[in-house]
Amino acid sequence: MKKKVPGSTQTRRQFLHRIGEAGGAAAVYQAMISMGLLVPGDARAAANQARWREQSRHGLNVSLPTVAVLGAGIAGLSAAYELKKAGYPCYVIEARDRPGGRNHTLRGGDVLTETDSAQQCAFDNDPELYFNAGPARISQHHKNLLAYCRELNVPLQAFINDNRGAYVHSRSAFGGQPVRARELVTAMRGTIAELLAKAINAGALDTEISFAERAQVLSVLRDYGALSAFHRFEGSTRAGLQAGTGGLTPAQAANPLAYEDVFLHPDIPYVPSFVETYNQAATMMQPVGGMDRIAYAFAEQLQEELFYGVEITAIRRSGQRVRLEGRAGAEEGAIEVDYAIITIPPTVLRSIDNDFSAPVRTAISQVQVATPTKIAFQSPRFWESEEDIYGGISWTDPEILQIWYPAGGFGNAQGILVGSYLFGGSDAQTFAALSPAQRIERALVYGEQVHPQYRSNLSRGLSVAWQKVPYSAGGWAISNPAPVLQQADGPFLFAGDHLSYLPGWQEGAVISSMQALANLADMTGV
Amino acid sequence: MKKKVPGSTQTRRQFLHRIGEAGGAAAVYQAMISMGLLVPGDARAAANQARWREQSRHGLNVSLPTVAVLGAGIAGLSAAYELKKAGYPCYVIEARDRPGGRNHTLRGGDVLTETDSAQQCAFDNDPELYFNAGPARISQHHKNLLAYCRELNVPLQAFINDNRGAYVHSRSAFGGQPVRARELVTAMRGTIAELLAKAINAGALDTEISFAERAQVLSVLRDYGALSAFHRFEGSTRAGLQAGTGGLTPAQAANPLAYEDVFLHPDIPYVPSFVETYNQAATMMQPVGGMDRIAYAFAEQLQEELFYGVEITAIRRSGQRVRLEGRAGAEEGAIEVDYAIITIPPTVLRSIDNDFSAPVRTAISQVQVATPTKIAFQSPRFWESEEDIYGGISWTDPEILQIWYPAGGFGNAQGILVGSYLFGGSDAQTFAALSPAQRIERALVYGEQVHPQYRSNLSRGLSVAWQKVPYSAGGWAISNPAPVLQQADGPFLFAGDHLSYLPGWQEGAVISSMQALANLADMTGV
Fold first, then answer.
1. pLDDT digit string (tens) for A478-494?
2. Mean per-residue pLDDT, A333-354
3. Which residues of chain A neighbour B408 with C-beta distances below 8 Å?
4. What is residue A51's predicted lDDT score, i.e. its pLDDT?
5. Contact A276 B189 (CB under 8 A)
6. In angstroms, how far is CA B333 from the centroid of its own chain?
7. What is the pLDDT of residues B19-39, one digit of tens each?
8. Interface test with B, best of A410, A451, A485 (most B CBs within 10 A)
9. Which CA distances in Å does B21 have to A255, B15, B24, B28, B40?
10. What is the mean pLDDT of residues A491-511?
11. DSSP state of B255
12. Which of these, A517, A516, A510, lies nearest to A78 by C-alpha position?
């Protein structure tokens, strides 16, 4: 039963409710969009969040169930934030001593713990000297995460995925010399356009392109590939200039890369496609000063609810309710709550005693995860001052694969360079098995094939192999989300990026937690 | 005659000088590179600057000539900064009351003056609410300008030219509906790759691609164009997702744009090439808080040398020297100096009495300039919160051509949106002829075809037509630099981006001023 709040005239909620009575949920959703309450778009998460926020408000005059959120990663934090806003008694229980989970930013003095090592970060104390060991970029269409950044005042800046001045390198291409991405991209466009123009002019595509269209299509191809008037690719200033030209004298195009070198290499021609993908194309972003600004912004709102250093040892049913057993240091204890939203990574969760249903246990046991590794160094920004590279990623041989240049603090004296980022696979396994010192040496050996200045500049290497990080035990899921985990299992609800089709993205974590809240709303009937 | 400085051991300069005696200028340059004094690269400007700095140091124990720098734009400021560092007596004479010339950033309270209007900027007072009326981006390979940003501690951030979420729109394409850049780019890559694969499979390119290479080239094309296993382009998630997919359910590709709509349009297929050009490709940058941070950083170093509000009325020879006549308000006066570095735009300079040689006068009279226009508005950032657009440029019909979204302050409540940027041509002339109020209306009428939210959000429009701005009288040069102006004309030296092959870029201004200093060094024999 809803009661009119004394003294209030019709509220926005009541207005929405009336629309709801007339036209159902779709009408409410549309009305919320027109009232500016909701961002229109493709994300069911936004609808789930709005529904949660709206419906949970109706329940304020009844006794609300108590919810425990297990894990203070982005999934747990966003779920708990919404629970608290809705007035729910809730606890967030986190084994670590910080929020964020895999969202982990390291600065001078921080410690990075793996199962067999602990590294202390030795970076200088400077707002731009940080290492995002976990997620390090946000897509502009990750609207649910970005809405939280707006709501929690987390400043964002551009992150550069696609820098045409960064290098593409392979020991088996271009004589082992790095080339600039702009050289590769220009040569591919030019060669493809030249070949297609040749086929069109030879009449090979007359079925597809009518004679009337031919001149227009050829004109487009000339522009696309920077071809000559005769549809030849003979190089272009897009790829860069010959030394000494383009200032006081006319720009002369650098010599183009050869077709054979580009197209027939097993890796090189595939590199530029990375930044064409939906989640990696510009504009990418990052929080100013480190990804954990998001985690701490949530945690700031949950100071009374968040409990650090508590390791869950059993997740039990107790009648219709949940009994959680755990320990904090040497102390053990248990609490009972009405519901639990469980965001503990499946690789960790499968080792915790539980009363989950058989299908849920099976699903948790079957999640497969990536084993990403990263290493970062502090260094003078020689890539900016000597090589004209401001942000972005160079691609090289699979032993280290990528070199990331900082997207913030351009022009500063020092910067943090990510000396390798491996998504998983055998090279990541090799890297993970090394000691921290050996990883540094490996990153230097392979990195100096791209940047000869490497060894004399890089210092304070700090590495992570996520499979060896306690309470994470791996990176993102590489198996598809199990539908059974997207639903409630009695009083147990699950969240985490592994339950979304955006694994490894914080947006996936938020989408999953909004789904858990929608499931909770279904069960509590608020 | 060089004298050993009393008490000094061998200095770096002396060391370099010895190398110079042994191997000439090239050896000095190489040595400076290895000693880290110089950035290696293609810019003669860097060599000119280094030569100036080195040679001018030799002259410190002789009587130095006095140099007047006319104009405090980036050319004049960088020349004066070097002169001052070298100990030269110099004056910088500027007609305006601010440094920067076309480098002009407007904030709340500033006034934008044209020949027939004066607009007061009504933006709110906030570090991110500014309008770069002139240059607004810096290429990462503009190394001379960027070296000054480093030296003068001007913080930089990424500027987004290529945002795949921004719109491409034309009233004569896609039913007049804006499409996302990612849709267009993906369709072009897909269609081109599909057509080429078809021609290859039909054997039309057997001369170019051997049978042994065919499988590899087809594999590259599949990746390039996101083709199906049968080499068909049937859409790709690169272009975006179908509504409601990709979160809790698998991502489904949006319907692809049709070949006819993309390739046969007279403008649309050419739009994406813009960001492939050498000077516009990522990473682009901007100073944090406004482009004029560069101008003010120089001016800060030239507080005693800079004279604002002085209009030069005549540039005369007086024997071997220079006589400058001018006025400051109602007062008139004249000074004599040994040399003048003249950075006054040619469109203004040609109306000032002068004693230049006949070829120089002709060259100055023949410089043709662009007539760019811009307009900016303050607005809530609906493009971020409602349309997932963070920075970048939407392209639309030629009446307004471009809409720029701010690259700084992501997530803030308010932002400055550039509602039109025209490089010149008839639409720019039409725009320039309008009153400030009419320009606002024109920008709204055409802009709301791209963003229906325009009129209810945008306010405080502020526009510029550079041809009507006093002391600028136009934008950048569209004719080639005249070699005669790259040299000294007696005591007269010239600088300005119009003397470089980077017109309209501040880097061109710096390159030209380093050339003027090199010419000065030649004449003074320091």
1. 999 999 999 999 999 99
2. 97
3. 157
4. 66
5. yes
6. 35
7. 334 334 444 444 333 333 333
8. A410
9. 35, 10, 6, 9, 21
10. 98
11. P
12. A510
Which residues in B lie closer than 8 A to residue A278 (C-beta atoms)? 182, 237-241, 246, 251
- Per the prediction, chain A carries an average pLDDT of 91
Which H or E element spans position A326? strand A321-328
Q: How many CB pairs under 8 A join A and B?
A: 281
Dihedral over Cα of B117, B118, B122, B126: its sign: positive
Strands (E), B230-382: 284-287, 306-307, 311-318, 321-328, 331-337, 339-342, 353-354, 373-380
Domains of chain A: 62-99+293-367+478-524 (3.50.50.60), 108-166+283-288+370-468 (3.90.660.10), 181-264 (1.20.1440.240)
The C-alpha angle A422, A428, A429, rounded to 5 degrees, equals: 170
In Å, what is the CA distance from B152 to each residue of B148, B255, B290?
Answer: 6, 50, 15
Angstrom distance (rounded) from CA B55 to CA A427: 53
Which residues of chain B lie closer than 8 angstroms to A237, CB-CB? 277-278
How many angstroms away from the CA of A2 is the closest CA of chain B? 32
3-state secondary structure A435-464: CHHHHHHHHHHHHCCCCCCHHHHCEEEEEE
Distance CA A351, CA A368 (A): 15
> So what's the ipTM on this one?
0.89
pLDDT at A526: 59
Q: In 3-state terms, what secondary structure has residue A120? A: strand
Q: Please answer whether residues A168 and A196 qualify as being in contact, where contact means their C-beta atoms are separated by less than 8 angstroms.
A: no
- What is the number of other CB atoms lying within 10 angstroms of the CB of residue A261? 16
Give the pLDDT score at A4.
Answer: 32
Alpha-carbon torsion A307, A311, A314, A315, what sign? positive
CA-based R_g, chain A, Å: 27
Distance from CA of A410 to the nearest CA of B (A): 6
Nearest to A241 among B273, B278, B407 (CB): B278
